[in-house]
């Protein structure tokens, strides 16, 4: 009681007063943060016409996600490189060279919150003429 | 006591007493040696503001967005107190549980990015509550008063991933203004807040 500055002025006979009190508390309110975003599940399909040799990756929206990172690799368990960061739930590649491609998607919230990479790796194969 | 003003020093600060036609005139406060005051029937005691774990906030924080803060306000005085809630832009520290006892690694008062919403400075900024909050008198109903302050905490876009799924102890609400009187107390638990 009586900590720091205290302003008291009289009021009506009911006992009304005006105080400015410094409340001695270690904490004043509790707030909780969400967990990191859940992991997306991605799938890949050949863009049409398949002769374009493009792959479209899609996934379901993740709650509160600001954007999504789409990663690509040519080997399972290999090095995945970021292809694009998009705010939508689909992404289409540029025309690809003949190879097998694997995709993973990460959901981001803000600058630093990211989900784990999608566990369902999406795979598409590009031949010299079509995507399959 | 005649109508006059006495300025006295309170512990760590000062006490200004302006007395008029007033029944309760004896203010008992912690005073430094050599200071003086008069009165008797009323003892002014600080309100106590603490964090609570229940009810749990409905709107949780995530980067770039606001969330609910839950607070308990206890009034030890023998009459209701109507308050406002000045805030500061000091960052809140993160804890692993709602007990707020174990600090969350990587989510501290220098990194969390969690502050009171609309706070304009570290020394306190005042906000107008959407609805007036009145805490009941000591021993009366609605004291302590539990209030959910809707969307009045905010998390910065760059808040670190370490702050996910974390509980925060918000910076103390310093400089609270309380007005004693006969106002009807707010029903607890209540929902309130400020929007600017």
Oligomer: heterodimer
Uncertain segments of chain B of ≥5 residues (pLDDT<50)? 1-41
- Give the count of structural domains of chain B: 2
Please provide the count of β strands of chain B. Answer: 12
Strand proportion of chain A, as a percent range, falls in 35-45%
Number of helices in the DSSP assignment of chain B: 0
Biggest interface pair, residues each? A-B, 44 and 82 residues
Number of DSSP-assigned strands of chain A: 11
Estimate the global geometry of chain B from the Cα principal axes.
elongated
What is the average per-residue confidence, as pLDDT of chain A, rounded to a whole number? 82
Radius of gyration of chain B: 19 Å
Please give the radius of gyration of chain A in angstroms: 28 Å
- The best one-word shape of chain A is elongated
| Proportion of residues in extended strands of chain B | 25-35%
Q: Please describe the biggest sheet of chain B, giving its number of strands, its sense, and whether it closes into a barrel.
A: 5 strands, mixed
Order of helices and strands of chain A: EEEEEEEEEEE
- What's the main sheet of chain A like? 5 strands, antiparallel
CATH architecture of the domain at 42-126 in chain A: Sandwich
Q: Overall pLDDT of chain B, averaged? A: 73
